[in-house]
């Protein structure tokens, strides 16, 4: 990896290709969001979910039949992790004893059945959570933008914001495209992705700012290239360690955080890409120049002597 | 000289480290499975003899007792094996009477000297230890309607006393409307009522025979009623949950009209729900005489024999709210019964009613507020509507033999379980307003243990991978970064234990993620040192410059992430909150370890020495 540091990649020279890639990913994401929509989890839609563990693997059709015969509507039955673990979803509104009823019904079938978990979320609670989460995301983005504008400059804030929106849309789009279940833990992961991607972007921005102040040329793409190359080994090392840990979570963490790990893995890959190609390249698009950083110079008396 | 810390900085790092270790330590002591016996009334502790008898009974049944201890009204018997918990609980419950609540519990085994410093292990969330989580919604409309009904009957009584004629009352939303024969009666009534009921806004409606008075509860009064309803319900739910015998239950208000109930360790959710959500109450009424006018009677069926019914007076003598204590037992014939003690006012009312009616029948009416869901078509869409309804049934009708006082018993219940639950409900009080379950989660104990095992496993593996990566990439500095990572983990665990944060599965994920990101600050610094070395700086200058210049990046990057974590905390519920807490604490501890601890270690090992090369 060391050799990477000394070689200069012409990142900015390939920015049009990168914009094209981002554009395609965004289009696919937005299209699948519009056409297929998110497969929202119980947390957001409301409904009833019962997970049971069988002593011996059952046939799913038999389980479904048993429940439908007993009058449950819209039953979805699937295995969860192991063949002996069965996840049952009922769209039906809540009745005080549904969880126990289901277990009792299945026990009648003869084989040993244990309740692993039962969840019920009222439709109203789901709706509120959906609104609240959307609002939370917007507030998070807004505050972060203000902070970046305050610490850097508003053009940086625009770049950072667009990069974050880019990341969020692609992660959510992937969930819509593959119809993975989007639940509360995935929402938490999404917010963590925002934090992480922002972290990346800020490190790159910090270096760009520093390079602009210290270099004597006005060729912005060259300055950006240098700054990005300088932070590249750090970016790869950090993304690498975080991805290592996330892979451990994905493989060993169990089913309840499966999609949490997936969301973070996608988010970190996309976030690393976007910190270079979206947030930095956008600074070129909004025509960042040396004068934009003049107010910042006052913080640093030495910098004022620069031409 | 470059890269030397003053002594106090080293001492500060050591101090933080020491405190961190101390408060992280309790997490290494495993919790003991235990059975907790607490007094239902709060003061009646078991005496030493009773505890000894219980212990020997347990030993005889082959259950190994580790220790027992007493704290105020609570006795804790620690067991050697977790499998013994349930049989031990049953065995103890058989041997102590109704005044005690027997619950299974996980007892901390933090040594006394640590506990004395306020150190205790992290609490495990429901997803890690199993249990039930309920989210309940208080029906505020019902609370308002109930209050208006009470007010309406008080107003009618006032008008009757003053001989003002009225035609009827109607309640709609937060408005109570009284109809009168003419305007004069209306105006007189308004003067009278307005004096006694300041919570209403008054408005005259209609004229002549259509004269009416509309009384609308003011905004402030509505808020007060709602606050009262939810607080009253909180108290009642706490009482009930305590009666259920759950160790460390949580009953908390969430938002304007919701209540969260968490019962760790409870597996029988059906029973828990019956008790938590029950809205049962009792009414004591006299049976109507054959000559009582129909307007004053009501007909009710028996609960366990719906074909039989009886006519009762509309007037209620007392309700279950007057009960000060209740317990269940069996009568001479082995049938379940509930023994009731009334409070002062209740006793007086009961005595007055029965004294003059010896020989008549008195009925006990069992009242339950329930809801059912009904699917209706609304604008062509199927919508589920929740309909509240009330079930009333007679449970006993018995002849009054003599004037009743403060204590008596009722029979006619279906089963001992029903008697026990009724006694419990009467003891813990009734709910001020009906509640509905809007969310429910049950986590089986096996899933909890599974989650812990998997979580710990992935933390270990993730950590190992990161450690290897850092060693390979940064050699000696990698060792320093890895030490910092270990310290970071200790500090994070210590901070979570100290703040009493709850460890949940997403919380573990937060720890894992923090560990991945924690090395980021060190990576930034080390890369910068490498770069400065390449730029031609001497070793000491490079180290100094590396820390100096990476500082702003590190702070900016972490503050923005912290901002996101704080927002996550403020909007999130349950699992998201757990994740946010861990993430925020992790950011703070990793800032400290990266900026102070690794610097101290680097200074200690490299600082002030005339080094020509640096293995980084």
Automatic annotation (TrEMBL), chain A:
Residues 107-287 form the Protein export membrane protein SecD/SecF C-terminal domain. One of its GO terms (cellular component) is plasma membrane. It comes from the Bacteria. The chain crosses the membrane at residues 17-35, 133-150, 157-178, 184-206, 227-251, 257-286. This is Protein-export membrane protein SecF. InterPro entries: SecD/SecF_arch_bac, SecD/SecF_bac, SecD/SecF_CS, SecD_SecF_C, SecD_SecF_C_bact, SecF_bac. It comes from Bisbaumannia pacifica. The lineage of its organism: Bacteria, Pseudomonadati, Pseudomonadota, Gammaproteobacteria, Oceanospirillales. The gene is secF. Keywords: Cell membrane, Membrane, Protein transport, Translocation, Transmembrane, Transmembrane helix, Transport.
Automatic annotation (TrEMBL), chain B:
One of its GO terms (biological process) is protein transport by the Sec complex. Residues 306-433 form the SecDF P1 head subdomain domain. Keywords: Cell membrane, Membrane, Protein transport, Translocation, Transmembrane, Transmembrane helix, Transport. The keyword Transport applies. Residues 230-287 form the Protein translocase subunit SecDF P1 domain. It comes from the Bacteria. InterPro entries: SecD, SecD-TM, SecD/SecF_arch_bac, SecD/SecF_CS, SecD_1st, SecD_SecF_C, SecD_SecF_C_bact, SecDF_P1_head. The chain crosses the membrane at residues 455-472, 479-501, 507-529, 550-572, 578-602. GO terms for molecular function: protein-transporting ATPase activity. Residues 2-104 form the SecD export protein N-terminal TM domain. Residues 438-602 form the Protein export membrane protein SecD/SecF C-terminal domain. It is found in: Cell membrane. It is a multi-pass membrane protein. Pfam families: Sec_GG, SecD-TM1, SecD_1st, SecD_SecF_C, SecDF_P1_head. The keyword Transport applies. GO terms for cellular component: plasma membrane. Part of the Sec protein translocase complex. Interacts with the SecYEG preprotein conducting channel. SecDF uses the proton motive force (PMF) to complete protein translocation after the ATP-dependent function of SecA. NCBIfam families: 2A0604s01 (TIGR00916), secD (TIGR01129). Forms a complex with SecF. Part of the essential Sec protein translocation apparatus which comprises SecA, SecYEG and auxiliary proteins SecDF-YajC and YidC. Belongs to the SecD/SecF family. SecD subfamily. This is Protein translocase subunit SecD. It comes from Bisbaumannia pacifica. The lineage of its organism: Bacteria, Pseudomonadati, Pseudomonadota, Gammaproteobacteria, Oceanospirillales.
